[in-house]
Amino acid sequence: MVALEISSETRALLANVRDWAIGEVRPLGRESDDTCDFPAGYQEVISRAPVKHCPLDFRYTGPGHTQDPDVLRNLDGGGAVLGLLVMEEMCYGDGWGWQALPGNNLGERAVRLLGTQEQIEKWADGVLRGDYRFTSICMTEEHCGSDLSQIKTTAVREGNQWVLNGQKRFISLGSTSDYLVVFAQTQPGHGLRGIRAFIVERQDAGLSVTKTAEDKMGMRWYPQATLEFNDIVLDDDRRLPSEDFGQIMSILNGTRPFCAAWGIGTARASLDYAVDWVAQNETSYSARRRERISEDVAQMRYHLDAARRLVLRAGWRHDQGEADPTYAASAKGYALPVIQAVTFRAMQMMGPEGSSKEHLVEKWHRDAKFLDIVEGTGQLHRIAVARAYIGKSAA
Ligand SMILES: Cc1cc2nc3c(=O)[nH]c(=O)nc-3n(C[C@H](O)[C@H](O)[C@H](O)COP(=O)(O)OP(=O)(O)OC[C@H]3O[C@@H](n4cnc5c(N)ncnc54)[C@H](O)[C@@H]3O)c2cc1C
Question: Which residue's CA lies nearest to atom 14 of ligand 1?
Fold first, then answer.
């Protein structure tokens, strides 16, 4: 059965999240952009968040806002779909809010998918217990990001231990996270077959931060570090045992739709803001200009709705068991061009005002660009979708 309606319990939760996001997160959006950090006092804002866990983690944790079994039963599965809906509302305020919640990064997710039961209990459940606040995932290097087979970081076995050497770039929260899941080549020349993941703790000897943050165009509150690993010695229980590349990539199949949900929240915020602004200023507009804006607003709404359905379909499939790579790629590959076009047009609708720092629309447009890059570029997702339908000849 196809159900497009959400429950009243979910609607109530989303309304609370939206109020919090607009009332508490959005007013600090400009500060987070200017200072390249979470805003001062962000922890108080987070302590008042209507959900206690990061939406990325709802499949494992639920939202944590109530113990009432009747409410929990009616929360639209309580997993990925609910997380995606909450993510969109949080980002309707501004993107920094959800990222300040614990468990916002992929290191923990990598442990859940690639680790043993003991590793999951120690490292992944440790985030839920509060033993660790932030984690990082380290794939990208100076010369490669999308193509993991090209990484040069190595892990060499010495008895019961591994020695890790190399560098990583663009690692989110890489200078502060409590632990990092680092992808390294264990059999040089064997491409993806030799790639394994290792857990590195912040205090491990040989880990150094050579750059704490990139000075980048958008998503400026969220730092990406450059790291070096010099002869880091790790016991074998720091190696995540999975050798299945499909499983490695399934980390991102689960999270890519969240990038799209984030962007849809941002694009909706831009569009609503611009529409309100135009409504207050349109007396000076020609009939032709108003007509053009109306037409564009309708088109943007259609496309955002279509994108949201792809996102929720990917979440729904994930809630049934496995994240589907093609559904995840469709969601991110289709939604991000829409999101970028909407945030761009919202700025344009406001004329020169749209580029002023008086308004957040210019910031949201810059943030949206980065969502197209993180977790694989849109181009690569569209190639993945084409390959699913017409095979390798697609690219
Ligand atoms: C804000 C931010 C946060 C990030 N956080 C992390 C993190 O926490 N951990 C981490 O490991 N990385 C992180 N990254 C890096 C990010 O994951 C990579 O930048 C991304 O995967 C793209 O890889 P790349 O930069 O090597 O680009 P490339 O893969 O080199 O792509 C460059 C261009 O070439 C195109 N292209 C590439 N291959 C093909 C192909 N086969 N066919 C056609 N076109 C192709 C791409 O679409 C793109 O337009 C982050 C990046 C940003 C911007």
Answer: 170
| Class of CATH domain 245-394 | mainly alpha
Cα-to-centroid distance, 108 and ligand 1 (Å): 21
Beta carbons within 10 angstroms of residue 188's beta carbon = 10
- Give dist(CA 173, CA 233) in Å, integer: 22
pLDDT in tens, the chain (395 residues): 467 788 899 999 999 999 999 999 999 999 999 999 899 989 999 999 999 888 988 887 778 777 777 777 777 666 899 999 999 999 999 999 998 887 777 898 899 889 999 999 999 989 888 899 889 999 999 988 778 889 999 999 999 999 999 999 999 999 999 999 999 999 998 888 899 999 999 999 999 999 999 999 999 999 999 999 999 999 999 999 987 777 777 778 889 999 999 999 999 999 999 999 999 987 778 888 888 999 999 999 999 999 999 999 999 999 988 889 999 999 999 999 999 999 999 999 999 999 999 999 999 999 999 999 888 888 889 999 999 988 877 66
Among 140, 141, 224, the mutation site with the greatest number of ligand 1 atoms within 8 A of its Cβ is: 140
Cα–Cα–Cα angle for 97, 26, 87, nearest 5°? 40
Q: Where are the domains of the chain?
A: 8-104, 116-240, 245-394
Ligand 1 centroid from CA 139, angstroms: 10
CB 368 within 8 A of CB 218: yes
CB of residue 227 inside a 6 A radius of ligand 1: no
Q: Is 263 exposed, middle or buried (0-12, 13-18, 19+ CB in 10 A)?
A: buried
The CATH fold of domain 8-104: Butyryl-Coa Dehydrogenase, subunit A; domain 1 (1.10.540)
For 165, 178, 194, 302, 364, the CA distances from 156, given in Å and listed in that order, are 9, 24, 11, 52, 43
Q: Give distance in angstroms: CA of 338 to centre of ligand 1.
A: 19
Q: Is 138 in the pocket of ligand 1 (CB under 6 A)?
A: yes
- The rounded Å distance from CA 42 to ligand 1 centre is 29
Angle, CA of 36, 42 and 44, to the nearest 5° = 175
- CA-nearest residue for atom 12, ligand 1, is 140
Distance 374 CA to ligand 1 centre (A): 6
